[in-house]
Each structure stands twice: as structure tokens, then as C-alpha cells.
Amino acid sequence: MPRIVAAFRIAAILEACSWMGLLIGMAFKYSGNGEAGVHLFGPIHGGLFMVYVLLAGPATRAAGWSARGTLLALLAAIPPLTTLWVERRLRAEPIAADGAAAA
For the purposes of burial, counting CB atoms within 10 Å of the CB of 48, is it exposed (0-12), middle (13-18) or buried (19 or more)? Predict the structure, then answer.
């Protein structure tokens, strides 16, 4: 597996975890238990979101995905935890030695 694809898979998992942390922090905030979770996970999630988006193009090209697949990977960053679907799809698809997805 190309390194860029492996890095993107890790970014997808971390982005989903940071989403979960942010959602939990928001639940605490709106239940009146303080804003510490949002202050902690907000910047972490923002940074991991940017890493995910920046790696999406090169990683999906290296994996042999179409432009539509790349667009879906980018859109997956918006709903919570959807990047886990992208990571699972990358893990399931074999990648040929030249970087193109195997048929």
C-alpha cells in the first residue's frame, strides 16, 4: 500500500475520533456542563479535517479511485464518522503495484 494511502487511512480514523470527541463536548456544553470539550476537540477536529481533505486527492489517485470516488471521499468528511466508511473501503480494495486499483 502506498504511504500516502496509509497516511490517509490514519487521517480518516483520527478525523472520525475527533468528530466523536467534538460531539461529546457539544453534548456537555449544551447540557450546561461546561465548554471544555468543545475548546479541546474543536481545534483538534479542525486540524484533522484539514489533513484529511489535503490528503484525499493524492491518496485516492494513488488508490486508483475515479474523480467521483475522490469527491465522495471529500464529502465524507462532512457528516460525523463517515470517514470510517472511506477508510474501510480503502482497506478492502487491493492496490496494484503501480498504484492503480486492481480489477
Answer: buried
- Residue for cell digits 496509509? 6
How far is residue 48's CA from residue 37's CA, in Å, rounded to a whole number? 16
Chain segment 57-69, per-residue pLDDT in tens: 999 999 888 888 8
Listed by start position, the domains of the chain span 3-92
Handedness of CA 88, 93, 96, 98 (dihedral sign): negative
What is the chain's mean pLDDT, rounded?
87
Q: pTM value?
A: 0.83
Residues 10/44/46/24 CA torsion (nearest 10 deg)? 100
